[in-house]
Structures are given as C-alpha cells and as structure tokens.
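Run log // design_07
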C-alpha cells in the first residue's frame, strides 16, 4: 500500500551508504600493497607493485567516479534547467541526515532497462519542458512516485515529459521533497515522510508549483484553464491530495504566485497508493509517530476512501489506471477513489487490467496495460483539453 514498503520495493544496491562501503573496501584493498618498514613492497616485487599500483589507481578512479555520479544532485538533460520553487527556505523545512543523491538502479530493471532513483531531496525544484512542434496550450505537472521516500525521476518523470511534449503539451516536472525513511530525527515535527497530513511537505510543493505554472501561463504560452497533474504511485496519491486540497494553501503566501489558484483542471493518477482506509491505516502505523485514522465504525476499509481525501463536486475530472495484481499499491486504492468521485458527481474514467504489477511507467512490454498513454490521450480529447 505504498509508503516505506513501496520504497523498499524500489531501493537499489547503489544507495549512498552502500557505495560508501564499497569505497571503504577499495581503501582496505589498496592498503595491502603498502611498503613495509624497510621500504620494500610487502609480498610483492617492485615490478609487480607498479603493475598493481596502476590497476588499483584505475579502480579507485573508477570507484570514485561512480561515487560522484551516484551521489550527486540530479540534473535534467541539456537544454533544460531546474529552478527552485521557493524563493527562500521552504515551509516546514527540516534538516536531512544525508545530502541529495541520484543513482542508477540496475538490480530492478523495468522493461529490461535501469531507472534513476533520486533521494534525500530537501530543495524542491521544477523543470519546464516546452512542447515539440505545435503547442496545444495544455500543461501538465508531473509527480514521480517512490513511496514518499525516493523519486523515480526518469521512469515516472522525464520519460513522461518526453511523451507529453511530443504531443504538444508543456510538461513541468516537480522534484518534491522526499527525505527517505529515517531522514528526519524522531524529534522532528514530522518524523515520517509520507502522505499528507502525516507530512505536509510534498503537498506544499505541489500547491506551490501549480500556482507558479498558472502565474507564468502567458509567458510559457499555456492556457491557464488547461493545467493538469499526473502522478504515479505515491505521486498518484499526491494527485488526489492536490485535487482535494486547493482552496487553501498549507503555508503562508510568499509572493504573487500563491494568489493564483492551485486547483488542477484535470488529473491522472496512475497506480496510485494511500487512498483507501486500509492503506491510510497502514501508513498511520509506520514511523516513529503514530496516527489515528478516523472513520465510521462500519466503514468498508477496502472500498472506503482515506478520510483526508475530501472529494467534492469541485474535484477535477480524473483518469485512473491500475493493475489488479499490483502488490505494492492495492487496486482498492483506485476503486475507493473512483467510488467517491462517482458519488460526488465528478467526471472520472477508470481502467483496470488483470496484469501489470506496479511501477511500469510508460515503458512498453507485452502486457496490454502498458499501452495506457493512448487511453489517456483519448480521455484528454473527450474532456476538451486537447484537439481531436
């Protein structure tokens, strides 16, 4: 049902602490070739020592190169610039235990290819990708998933933008705050990163970004009435959160952008999590600080909606997609949200597939569910966002 479990599903063997351990092993290995007290290379002839020294030097350079590449701050492709969404300190800012890192995950490939994990994000940014060719005037803010612990920045981020911009849609990729499990101290106001209200930071970042896009609509050639959101997994929950928490910002306004509406004009949640009562109760018992999920005693926990997702008639038209064999975020998350949207009279389209699992992004496989982008494109046509 998402959260830490979802992040553990995604966690790679190239996390910073594991890279650091490999570095330590390299240093221990090189110490075996240190000269003895007589000045002669211990157990190795002078000639052999020189050979080993060259090999070790290359290995160490390679190791440190990998360390740098895998722990550096993520950067978008050439021609794109990520900019901070907050002019100063972000609201509810909390120090993290480690710096931001980006690492390639090769152990758990998707459609036979690795993906990039970004973690320990404390400085949220947005990256604007302009349409290629004809501009439809539509913009979409993208929320990658990762259990509110990490971000699948390419699988559920840049690759989504590549598709959207090809369709003439402006894409705004949000790198929202994700400290990682244990990233905050137990004494912090929000000791567990997770869905709102357990941790408000990601929703604050989403509200701020939606307002910024609307504020810059004329400059970026965007129709201010055609700004939507799409999110995956935990990012799918963030889609539902901003779709139901737009009347009031969670933070004091910092500039004119915060006077703009942050309500999405349409929303797409792809294999979302954290949306059923059962998922909310599971979330509430994770981390150092526990929460109580208040609901009716006779509520159906599988099909009942997380009480923090307050659906009204003002909730934007929504597209839902999930696989029935999703063992990370249960299909009941989509079902619970769908039922609530129907009851509130909100236009909603849901697609469920028997097979597909979780976290496939836009990468095509033999499974029919991976053809979902065409379904979303057709839906955008039917609700009048893009031309037919």
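design_07 sequence
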């Amino acid at each position: 049902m998402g959260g830490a479990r979802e992040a553990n599903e995604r966690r790679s063997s190239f996390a910073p602490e594991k890279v650091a351990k490999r570095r330590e092993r390299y240093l221990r290995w090189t110490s075996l070739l240190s000269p003895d007290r007589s000045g002669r290379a211990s157990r190795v002839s002078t000639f052999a020592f020189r050979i080993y020294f060259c090999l070790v030097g290359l290995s160490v350079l390679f190791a440190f190169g990998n360390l740098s590449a895998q722990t550096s701050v993520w950067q978008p492709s050439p021609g794109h610039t990520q900019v901070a969404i907050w002019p100063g300190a972000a609201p509810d800012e909390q120090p993290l235990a480690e710096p931001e890192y980006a690492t390639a995950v090769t152990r758990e490939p998707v459609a036979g290819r690795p993906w990039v994990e970004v973690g320990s994000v404390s400085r949220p940014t947005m990256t604007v990708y302009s349409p290629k060719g004809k501009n439809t005037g539509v913009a979409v803010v993208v929320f990658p998933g990762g259990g509110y612990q990490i971000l699948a920045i390419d699988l559920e981020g840049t690759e989504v933008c590549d598709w959207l911009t090809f369709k003439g849609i402006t894409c705004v990729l949000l790198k929202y705050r994700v400290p990682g499990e244990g990233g905050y101290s137990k004494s912090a106001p929000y000791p567990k990163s997770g869905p709102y209200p357990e941790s408000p930071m990601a929703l604050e970042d989403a509200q701020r970004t939606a307002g910024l896009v609307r504020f810059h609509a004329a400059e970026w050639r965007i129709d201010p009435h055609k700004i939507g959101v799409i999110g995956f997994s935990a990012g799918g929950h963030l889609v539902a959160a901003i779709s139901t928490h737009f009347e009031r910002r969670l933070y004091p306004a910092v500039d004119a952008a915060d006077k703009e509406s942050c309500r999405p004009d349409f929303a797409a949640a792809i294999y979302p999590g954290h949306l059923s009562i059962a998922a909310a109760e599971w979330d509430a018992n994770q981390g150092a600080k526990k929460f109580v999920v208040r609901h009716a005693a006779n509520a159906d926990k599988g099909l009942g909606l997380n009480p923090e997702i307050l659906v009204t008639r003002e909730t934007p038209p929504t597209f839902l997609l999930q696989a029935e064999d999703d063992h990370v975020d249960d299909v009941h998350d989509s079902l619970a949200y769908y039922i609530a949207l129907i009851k509130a009279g909100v236009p909603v389209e849901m697609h469920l597939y028997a097979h597909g699992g979780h976290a496939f992004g836009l990468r095509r496989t033999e499974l029919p569910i991976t053809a979902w982008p065409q379904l979303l494109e057709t839906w955008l046509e039917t609700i009048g966002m893009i031309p037919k």
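DSSP finds nine helices and eleven strands in the chain.
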